[in-house]
């Protein structure tokens, strides 16, 4: 939940998806998706494998083109801005299941790369910031370590630090802990929860329901490319939900 007030301006829609349709060939993967993410809030997105969760995040990050509908970010229509995807991705960072770190770069260099290349931040400044961010994700002593010498949980925290290095307005996480051994899941979720509590606007695909209860302001359940349920977290877990949602929750809780 958001701990900080937003200057009395009231809730603001940072990401707004309306009437989104996406197909791969004849396969309709997303159908008439509406979703709103307010500034400073965390939305957790769940659903069975193949329901379209990753595709929806990828559309928001302009990694996929869409056939129909609208995606606005901070008031700007971005769905047709694939030519400017790099600019949009400064503001909407994405964290992947498999970390996707550059293997030939140390942890600090992974974090420094985009600020230096994209924003022209001087090396020393980028390095100082990388050290700060490694502290924030609780691996301050790993700056010079290469990905293969890090545990999965440490690699994912470097990936989160790398996302933060661009000072994004939102972070999209696609099953960030599902490739991790159980004992490492917690350390990654703790970092995500801290960011969420500090007011980082987040969309999280995860089946870690204890995290969802603590971090999410809003829950979305998708099935077969459709949004089945979209409601406040308390309502989702403790209130009335549809039979399909309940069935899915019973499977994973
Ligand atoms: P989820 O993340 O919920 O498991 P995905 O968004 O990855 O679901 O996939 C939704 C559907 O789209 C699945 O049927 C998947 O096979 C299909 N799909 C995903 N990416 C592609 C692609 N690049 N080409 C063809 N089909 C795809
Ligand atoms: Mg997926």
Coarse shape = globular
| Number of β-strand runs | 10
Kindly report the average pLDDT value.
94
Query: Please, how many helices?
Result: 9
Largest sheet: 6 strands, mixed
N-to-C order of helices and strands:
EEEHEEHEHHHEHEHEEHH
Derived structural class: alpha/beta
Low-pLDDT sequence parts: 1-7
Query: What fraction of residues sit in β-strands?
Result: 25-35%
* Distance, first to last CA: 21 Å
**Helicity range:** 25-40%
Q: Give the names of the bound compounds.
A: adenosine-5'-diphosphate, magnesium ion
The main sheet orders its strands as 6-7-8-3-9-10
Gyration radius, to the nearest Å? Answer: 18 Å
Layout of secondary structure:
Elements: E1 13-24, E2 27-38, E3 42-46, H1 53-60, E4 68-73, E5 76-77, H2 85-91, E6 92-95, H3 107-119, H4 123-136, H5 152-164, E7 170-174, H6 182-197, E8 201-205, H7 209-215, E9 218-223, E10 226-232, H8 233-238, H9 243-252
Parallel strand pairs: 3-8, 3-9, 6-7, 7-8
Antiparallel strand pairs: 1-2, 1-4, 4-5, 9-10
The protein binds adenosine-5'-diphosphate and magnesium ion.
Residues 24, 27, 29, 47, 49-55 line the site of adenosine-5'-diphosphate.
């Amino acid at each position: 939940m958001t701990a900080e007030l937003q200057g009395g301006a009231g809730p603001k829609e940072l990401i707004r998806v309306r009437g989104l349709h996406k197909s791969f060939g004849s396969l309709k993967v997303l159908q008439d998706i509406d979703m709103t993410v307010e500034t400073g809030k965390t939305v957790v997105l769940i659903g069975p494998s193949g329901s379209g969760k990753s595709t929806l995040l990828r559309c928001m990050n302009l990694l996929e083109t869409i056939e129909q509908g609208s995606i606005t970010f901070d008031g700007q229509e971005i769905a047709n801005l694939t030519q400017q995807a790099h600019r949009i991705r400064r503001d909407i960072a994405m964290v992947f299941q498999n970390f996707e770190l550059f293997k030939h770069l140390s942890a600090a260099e992974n974090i420094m790369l985009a600020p230096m290349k994209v924003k022209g931040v001087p090396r020393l400044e980028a390095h100082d910031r990388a050290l700060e961010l490694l502290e924030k994700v609780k691996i301050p002593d790993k700056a010079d370590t290469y990905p293969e010498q890090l545990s999965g949980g440490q690699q994912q925290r470097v990936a989160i630090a790398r996302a933060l290095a661009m000072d994004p307005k939102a972070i999209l996480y696609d099953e960030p802990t599902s490739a991790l051994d159980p004992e490492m899941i917690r350390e990654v979720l703790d970092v995500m929860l801290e960011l969420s509590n500090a007011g980082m606007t987040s969309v999280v695909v995860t089946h870690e329901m204890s995290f969802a209860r603590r971090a999410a302001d809003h829950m979305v359940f998708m099935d077969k490319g459709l949004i089945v349920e979209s409601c406040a977290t308390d309502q989702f877990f403790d209130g009335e939900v549809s039979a399909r949602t309940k069935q899915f929750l019973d499977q994973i809780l």
